[in-house]
Each structure stands twice: as structure tokens, then as C-alpha cells.
Task: inverse folding
């Protein structure tokens, strides 16, 4: 039944492109919404009958070695949620029926790719599904077909190809010491391997590839361009789940389940995490473009996640996964806000905006929730995940990195306060007098995501006891 | 020369021709087809050399590679005029015309110089193994390849359609 996570969107994409054009254009949105929302709900209620029900006909033809554990569940939920938001935003961003049909088809294929990457248990299969995400991301970034979009898409593609080539090299090296490419097979082989130099090289090359895919510093060259040049719904998708799935999730899965923690690996993760968190925040401070500021903020927050992972402890990994979830939600929220403002004001330059809070109160409110959560202000969700990461850093003896993490939080607050003050506060310019609140379809994802951010933060004791304490079991603690 | 060797030589010739075609042809689509054909032939060679996993991996990598190459090329190119195309073709022939001759000379050298490395190859794979590997062991990769290619098709439709309309 897990195979449906890959097969359902794949076959939906095929079915939406059979003849009867008028029918498929009308049904495309509904079908995609059902699949995206269905995946989200399935992850909230994993014990629903549908999930465990064996489908004999399906199993007869498709017997994929797949696995869904607590870590995959978190990612699958985020994928469903962010794809739903992307779909809703595309209603305005891609108004023509025929183009939207193609857009939705690529979204479905991307869903198949991301779901596949999250549930496979084989390194080579992981590579194949990461390629699907890379190809579909390229198409979506270049979707508007203007020169900046093509430039950003090409940069993304070049970096992505370099990363996948490194992954292939790593797989080739691993095959010299491992009989197969399954996670469990590789893990067992690496532990007893006498070729420590070869193993170190393979691990190093793979981790480097994951850094490129995540857009972490110093491999971040493609990320700000891709996020800012892509259409608004695609920015939400890229920042919300794509880099999380192809980069951070891959890193978490491979480091925790396959390679295991070693002292040099921990040090590399901590150094790259701290560099990304600090340099990303400093770069965000210097930005005047709304989307570019969010892009650099993403780099900074992903650095936080890597800092948590670099602790090498179950608490650190738990903080990393929790921050990954929170970041997927609040960064999608902030990019939705950016789409709302761009759709009404028609500009992205923060310095040219002022007083939009009185014109767009819902956008201002949800943006404040997203910004404060990113900055780690209690009681919002972002505070708790950052708090766990800082505690984990302190408890593992990484005091310097803990101080850097606190400093980065202050920097994050600084650039988001600057953004809030310029965009929403003050007197509205005369040119903004006729601006109204964004349309409901654009507001809806922002409202839902801010509600999730608020509820997860306020109900943290419940989240901790019922959800988060389940997570360490996957790390063998 | 046994019948197996003859088949191998024919397959190798097809590999070289399809690879050359991929490099020499003017049309972008034909070039991609040439690359795909070269990859498919290489897959067959790997199967014949009893490396079914390497063969399946080659197929997967190439499925992704062709999509990536195709899309990136589309993004970088603009349609050439007939004169530009003809000029480009002439330059290409003058640049690469020695390539087939070099290959032929290398082939002749290898035919006369007896190179017989002492390799202990594993026994040939059973006929059923190809099917088992493709459909049973690496079925999920196969679906992945199909998705990559379908995504590539959408990319071409989306990114080329409007250019053609213009």
C-alpha cells in the first residue's frame, strides 16, 4: 500500500493527460487537491484503515521495498501540506487552464519523486527519485520563461547535476566495500570494512552532495536566485519541502541510518551548520528584496537543522527533525505572504513598501506569526525547536556553537523586525491607497500555516509527549 | 571468432555509431535519441558481461541524464537560422572529421597487437536474470525512470511550446 505514495500521483499525471481536454482541465485541480490533502490526512491518521489495507492486485504487480517510519511521516505530511498550498496559490499565479494542467501534472510528478525519495530504502533508488525532483524543479523554476527564471533554473540544474554526480561517485565507492546498495546492507558493510580511507571518502563525497542539494553555505550559490526568480507558488514549494527533502532529509537519513556518526563527520556538520546559520542571517540583513531575504533566511534556518544533527545525539536529531517540520511550515507561510503582497502591491522591494498592515491585515498578522516563529519567539513553534537544538548543543559540550545559535536567533529577529517595520507599519504610501487584502485562495495557506505554527507552539507539551517522544525510537535511542 | 564474439562486435559497432551520431547530428532531438541509443546499447553490453546491476544503473542514470541534458540545452539555445545552421554543420564536420579515422586506426592496432589481459570474469548470467533484476529487484528504479522521462516530456512541452508559437 505504501507503493501508492509513488504510484497514485504518477498514474494521476498520466490520466490527466489522456484525451477529453475540457474534462481533464476541470478535474485536474480537484484530483491533485484530493491527492495532496489525502497524503496530509493520512500522515495525521497513520492508523486509518486505508493505510494498512493490503491491495492484492496492486501488490501482485508492484512489490517495492519501501518503508514509512516516524521520520518519513514528518516529511510526507510536510510534502502534502506544502503541495496543497502551492496548488491553491497556482489558481491565481497560473490562470490559464491549459498551462495550469501542465503545472499540476509536473506537481504530481514531483510529489511522486519526493514521496519516493522519502520512502525508499536503497541508496541508488534514492538517487533516481532525487533526479525526478531535480528535473521537475528545473521545469517549475523556469515556468514563467523569462530570462531570470531560465538563469536561475540553469544554475539550479548545474549545481544539482554536480551533486548527483558526487552521489553517483559515492555510490560507486560504496559498492567497492558493500555487496548491495540497500541502507541496511551498506550500514553493515561500512561498520566492518577495513578500507577506512575509502569509506571516509565515500561518506565525505555524499555529505558534500547533500550540502549542495540543501543549498548550505558555501554551496548556496543557486538558492537565492532560484527562490526569487521562480513563480510565487514554486518559491513556496522549493523553500517549503524541495530543499528539505532532497538535501536535509537525505542527509538525516543517510547520516543517522547508514553512515553513523563519527567525530570528523560531527565536526564537519557543526562547522557547515554554524557557517550557514550565521552567514545566511548576515546576508539576509543586507537584502531589500522580500523573496531574497526569505531565501537567505532559509539558508540560515537550514544551518540550524544541521547544527542539531551535528550534535550526534538523539536530542539533537529530534530538534533537527522538529525544526525541519517547523521551518517547512513557517517558511511556506512567509513565501505565501510574499505572494500575497506581490499580487497586490506588484513590488518586492522592502524599502519601497510601507503601511501595508492597514490595507492587508490578515497578511500582516500571519506574516508576524511566521517571522516571530522563525526568530524563535515563545510560545510559537519555532521557539521550541530552536530551544531543543540549543539545549542539545550545550549538553553535547558544543558551547561555542550554542552561543552562535543564540546569536543567529537575535540576528533573525533583527532582519524580520526590519521587514515588518518597512512593509506593514508606518503610513501607507498614496500609491497603496487602493490596495485591498489578498484573495482568499492566497490567504488560506497563510492562515492555515500560521494556525499550525501557533497551535504546535502553544500545545508544545502535548506535541512533545505524543509526537516528539516517538521520534527518538527511530534513532535507536 | 565465435558467434558470441561476432555479436559483441556488432553491438560495439552500434554503440560507436550511435555515440558518433549523438555528437554529429544537427538536430537536438536526434542527438538525444543517439545518446539514449548509446546508453541502451551500453546496457546490453553490461548485461552480456554479466553485470546486470551495472546495466540497470546505467539505464537509470541515462534516463535522468537525458532529461537533464535535454532541458538544459533547450534553456540555453535559441533557434538558428538556416545559414547559421549550415555554417555550424560545416564547422562541426571540420572539427570532428578525424574522429572516425582515429577510432578505425585504434581498432586496427588492437586487432594486430594481441592484448589478452588475464581477467577472471564471473560466469555469464542466466537468461532469466535480466528480467528478474529489472522487474523484481530494481522495479522501483524502473518506475522512477518512467517518472523522470515523463517529467522530461512535460518539460519539453512546457518550455518549448510557447517558443514554437512565437
Result:
Amino acid at each position: 500500500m505504501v507503493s501508492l505514495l509513488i504510484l497514485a500521483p504518477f498514474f494521476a499525471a498520466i490520466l490527466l493527460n489522456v484525451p477529453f481536454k475540457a474534462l481533464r482541465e476541470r478535474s485536474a485541480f480537484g484530483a491533485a487537491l484530493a491527492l495532496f490533502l489525502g497524503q496530509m490526512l493520512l500522515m495525521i491518521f497513520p492508523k486509518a484503515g486505508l493505510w494498512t489495507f493490503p491491495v492484492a492486485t496492486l501488490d501482485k504487480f508492484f512489490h517495492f521495498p519501501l518503508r514509512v517510519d516516524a521520520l518519513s511521516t514528518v516529511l510526507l505530511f510536510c510534502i502534502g501540506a506544502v503541495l496543497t498550498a502551492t496548488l491553491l496559490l497556482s489558481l491565481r499565479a497560473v490562470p490559464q487552464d491549459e498551462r495550469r494542467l501542465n503545472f499540476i501534472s509536473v506537481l504530481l510528478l514531483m510529489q511522486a519523486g519526493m514521496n519516493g525519495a522519502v520512502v525508499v530504502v536503497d541508496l541508488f533508488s534514492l538517487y533516481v527519485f532525487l533526479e525526478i525532483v531535480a528535473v521537475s524543479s528545473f521545469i517549475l523554476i523556469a515556468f514563467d520563461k523569462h530570462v531570470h527564471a531560465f538563469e536561475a533554473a540553469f544554475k539550479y540544474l548545474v549545481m544539482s547535476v554536480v551533486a548527483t554526480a558526487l552521489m553517483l561517485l559515492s555510490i560507486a565507492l560504496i559498492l567497492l566495500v558493500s555487496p548491495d546498495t540497500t541502507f541496511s546492507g551498506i550500514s553493515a558493510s561500512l561498520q566492518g570494512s577495513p578500507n577506512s580511507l575509502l569509506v571516509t571518502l565515500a561518506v565525505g563525497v555524499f555529505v558534500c552532495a547533500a550540502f549542495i542539494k540543501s543549498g548550505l553555505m558555501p554551496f548556496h550559490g543557486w538558492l537565492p536566485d532560484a527562490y526569487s526568480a521562480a513563480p510565487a507558488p514554486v518559491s513556496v514549494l522549493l523553500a517549503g519541502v524541495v530543499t528539505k527533502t532532497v538535501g536535509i532529509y537525505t542527509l538525516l537519513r543517510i547520516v543517522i541510518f547508514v553512515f553513523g556518526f563519527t567525530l570528523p563527520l560531527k565536526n564537519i556538520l557543526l562547522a557547515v551548520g554554524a557557517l550557514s546559520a550565521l552567514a545566511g542571517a548576515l546576508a539576509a540583513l543586507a537584502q531589500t528584496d522580500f523573496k531574497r531575504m526569505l531565501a537567505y533566511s532559509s539558508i540560515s534556518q537550514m544551518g540550524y537543522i544541521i547544527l542539531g544533527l551535528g550534535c550526534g545525539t538523539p536530542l539533537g536529531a529530534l530538534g533537527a527533525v522538529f525544526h525541519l517540520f517547523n521551518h517547512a511550515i513557517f517558511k511556506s507561510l512567509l513565501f505565501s505572504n510574499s505572494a500575497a503582497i506581490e499580487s497586490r502591491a506588484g513590488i518586492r522591494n522592502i524599502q519601497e513598501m510601507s503601511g501595508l498592515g492597514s490595507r492587508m491585515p490578515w497578511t500582516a498578522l500571519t506574516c508576524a506569526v511566521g517571522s516571530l516563529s522563525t526568530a524563535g519567539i515563545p510560545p510559537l513553534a519555532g521557539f521550541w525547536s530552536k530551544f531543543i537544538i540549543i539545549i542539545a548543543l550545550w549538553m553535547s559540550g558544543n558551547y561555542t556553537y550554542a552561543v552562535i545559535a543564540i546569536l543567529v536567533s537575535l540576528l533573525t529577529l533583527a532582519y524580520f523586525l526590519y521587514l515588518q517595520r518597512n512593509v506593514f507599519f508606518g503610513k501607507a504610501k498614496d500609491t497603496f491607497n487602493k490596495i485591498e487584502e489578498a484573495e482568499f485562495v492566497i490567504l488560506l495557506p497563510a492562515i492555515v500555516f500560521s494556525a499550525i505554527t501557533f497551535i504546535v507552539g502553544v500545545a508544545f507539551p502535548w506535541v512533545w509527549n505524543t509526537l516528539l517522544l516517538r521520534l527518538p525510537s527511530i534513532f535507536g535511542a | 571468432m565465435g558467434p558470441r564474439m561476432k555479436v559483441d562486435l556488432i553491438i560495439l559497432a552500434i554503440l560507436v555509431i550511435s555515440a558518433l551520431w549523438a555528437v554529429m547530428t544537427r538536430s537536438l532531438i536526434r542527438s538525444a535519441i543517439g545518446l539514449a541509443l548509446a546508453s541502451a546499447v551500453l546496457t546490453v553490453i553490461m548485461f552480456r558481461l554479466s553485470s546486470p546491476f551495472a546495466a540497470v544503473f546505467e539505464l537509470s542514470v541515462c534516463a535522468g541524464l537525458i532529461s537533464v541534458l535535454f532541458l538544459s540545452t533547450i534553456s540555453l539555445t535559441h533557434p538558428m537560422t538556416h545559414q547559421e545552421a549550415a555554417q555550424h554543420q560545416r564547422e562541426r564536420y571540420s572539427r570532428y572529421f578525424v574522429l572516425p579515422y582515429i577510432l578505425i586506426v585504434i581498432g586496427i592496432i588492437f586487432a594486430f597487437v594481441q592484448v589478452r589481459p588475464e581477467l577472471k570474469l564471473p560466469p555469464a548470467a542466466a537468461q532469466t536474470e535480466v528480467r528478474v533484476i529489472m522487474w523484481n529487484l530494481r522495479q522501483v528504479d524502473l518506475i522512477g525512470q518512467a517518472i523522470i522521462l515523463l517529467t522530461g516530456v512535460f518539460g519539453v512541452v512546457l518550455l518549448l511550446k510557447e517558443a514554437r508559437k512565437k
